[in-house]
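A student in our group prepared the protein record below, which I am reviewing. This is what I was given:
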Amino acid sequence: MSSLTLAVRNSSTMLRRNLLHARRYPSLTLNLLLTPIMLLLLFVYIFGDTMSAGIGGGGADRSAYVAFIVPGLVLMTIGSTTVGTAVSVSNDMSEGIVARFRTMPIHRGSVITGHVIGSVLQSVISVVLVGAVAVAIGFRSTDATVLEWLAAFALVALFATALTWIAVGMGLISPNAEAASNNALPLIFLPLISSTFVPIDAMPGWFQPIAEYQPFTPAIETLRGLLLGTEIGHNGWLALGWCVALCALGYFWSKSVFNRDSK
């Protein structure tokens, strides 16, 4: 059996293992998924009229704020889901199953690859669920073309892959599940200081660069432009650059830590 065939077969096995774990122990995924859904309902129904009036400078229009907030919460959902990946990886490392895998004739990288693919699939499913809730409360994207929808889906998948590799690295360096959850908190916190809830130009001047030049804001503005027809500008290239950089950083970081721990 060639090395590539072995890697594909072993990665598929590890993927099935991770999906079975997610199905048998859904509480962590559900808890992380409920965060963006509750924020969506809270901001739309409690703050929606006030926020939309402040953003638009006119009368209250909750439907306008639904359209504004959904792209940010879609990406926040990805960040929340990948926290579960960090916890799952840390559990595997601390409970000894990875040490057992290393004594078996399997491809070394398949353990991590299974986590990454499984997490990306869970992120996409979570985004679909959050999107369904958003549509149910009034989100509409009437001007987006099929090509723009495909580009939006590709952005979501690429962003999920990038954050997942970072989450895997966080899980590998964490001694236990609690530490992994704490280390991955920036993946939930960063969307809160991005353009998810208010435009960048509505923030204090000293804070605007912090919110603008972090990974989430360019991706949010790009997704917003694809689905709602707003101006994307340079955000598309920034989002792509952040995704590629985070993928590369997370991959080489995770590979280095995993191989180091095996010695």
